[in-house]
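During the second half of the funding period, the structural biology subgroup turned its attention to how the target accommodates small molecules. The most pressing case was arginine, which had performed well in the primary screen but for which no bound structure existed. We therefore specified the complex as follows and requested a full 3D prediction, including the ligand pose.
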Amino acid sequence: MCRPTYYTIAYEINPWMSLKRQANHRRALMQWTRLHELLTRRLKARVKLLTPKPGVPDLVFTANAGLAVGRTFIRSNFRHPQRQREEPHIERHVKRSGFRLVTLPRRYRFEGEGDALWMNGALLFGFRFRSDAPAHEELARLLHTQVLPVELADRRFYHLDTCFAPLDDRAALWFPKAFDRYGRKVIEGLVEDPISVSEADAKRFVCNAIAVGRSIVLQEGSSSTLRRQLMRRGFRLYPLDLSEFLKAGGSAKCLVLRIF
Ligand code: ARG
């Protein structure tokens, strides 16, 4: 995770961001701290911190730094110049932490865990708005694993982790309309128990959820239907208010990158 010390809305690179709707700095820091405390104290996750840096306000969304697989780290090739400025900083940190750093050919954009999520031993890969489709072959080659590319169809859900969240090896949250027909088929084939969320829940970024064992951390305000569906499956819910990060088009999951 990365503390939101320099987090602001400094540009508009997705439909949620507006320079006219600035994030409240004090509130953002408080919301981030609650997430950090929930993960470390309640859920006993070990969290490493990336040093914040001025001039790269979206660095807080560490899910986009890259994809960590064991000790290998595939660094992102960001689509937008505003975020490309994060790359050298991420690279230095990752190398210093002892990972083997890998990059994809520059011509392929790739936004890390934002667009690449493990489900059932396969890597589901979302492309179009941020990552490029051909990057999936590079990923498969590097990781010696099955990579399933799915095209994202709705600009509001521009990263895979805004419309899909693996919960365990059977269940995942998703917003089906964010995918095209082929993508929906791929997901229905891969996920035994797909839980579709309503458009209202999707717009609240409930799919941007973090699963830690049977605990799920997600944006507060989800519908009672969804809460019931999750509780029936034995999940414990930890809703958090992450309003200041929603203004940048991100929520709980975007603020963390899994390393294991
Ligand atoms: N403002 C950031 C961007 O547009 C938000 C990133 C959200 N991250 C995510 N993994 N969905 O790039």
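Two results from this model are relevant to the next phase. The domain at 25-255 is CATH 3.75.10.10 (L-arginine/glycine Amidinotransferase; Chain A). Residues 25-42 form the longest helix (18 residues).
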